[in-house]
């Protein structure tokens, strides 16, 4: 079994969107295939060098799509969409991806590796073990 992280391409969007829709719905998020594809297409268009597919033997099993922004501590590398198929979770691929993103962030001069996590998801504990900390900020929204 050969695990690989590679740059995502537009042709990967349908597969990645299927994974996003399936895995995030388990957390109560109402993604559709169309909304997921649009979100991932937006990220790959704006950040082509920060979007990655996770593969085992050339089959996509997950993805990590990131974007950059500037804020209080400088340049942030925000892993804004990150998912791995359920059958491949708990096998270390998430940690390998976080290590990859951390190394990438350091090489590209980012100051902070950032992500949003649902405290009820399994990955939350992994993020804590990896060194992510809660901030004083939370996401808030108002539907229009």
Walkthrough of the structure:
The protein has a 5-stranded mixed beta sheet with strand order 1-2-3-4-5. β4, α3 (93-107) and β5 form a beta-alpha-beta unit. α1 (13-25) packs across α2 (33-46). It contains 4 helices and 5 strands, in the order βααβββαβα. It has helices at 13-25, 33-46, 93-107, 123-130; strands spanning 3-7, 51-56, 59-71, 74-84, 112-115. It has one domain: Gcn5-related N-acetyltransferase (GNAT) (Aminopeptidase, 3-Layer(aba) Sandwich). The chain is globular, with a radius of gyration of 15 Å. By secondary structure, the protein is an alpha+beta fold. The mean pLDDT is 94.
Summarize the model shown.
This protein is α+β, with helices and mostly antiparallel strands. Helices cover 35% and strands 27% of the residues.
Task: Note poorly predicted spans.
Answer: none
Strands ordered across the widest β-sheet: 1-2-3-4-5
So what's the CATH class? Alpha Beta
Q: What would you call the shape?
A: globular
CATH architecture: 3-Layer(aba) Sandwich
Order of helices and strands: EHHEEEHEH
| Biggest beta sheet summary | 5 strands, mixed
Total domains, how many?
1
The percentage helix is 25-40%
Kindly provide the radius of gyration, computed on alpha-carbon positions and rounded to a whole number of angstroms: 15 Å
Tell me the distance between the termini: 47 Å
Chain-averaged pLDDT: 94
Give me the count of strands: 5
CATH superfamily: Gcn5-related N-acetyltransferase (GNAT)
Number of helices: 4
CATH topology: Aminopeptidase
Oligomer: single chain
Structural class designation: alpha+beta
Strand content: 25-35%
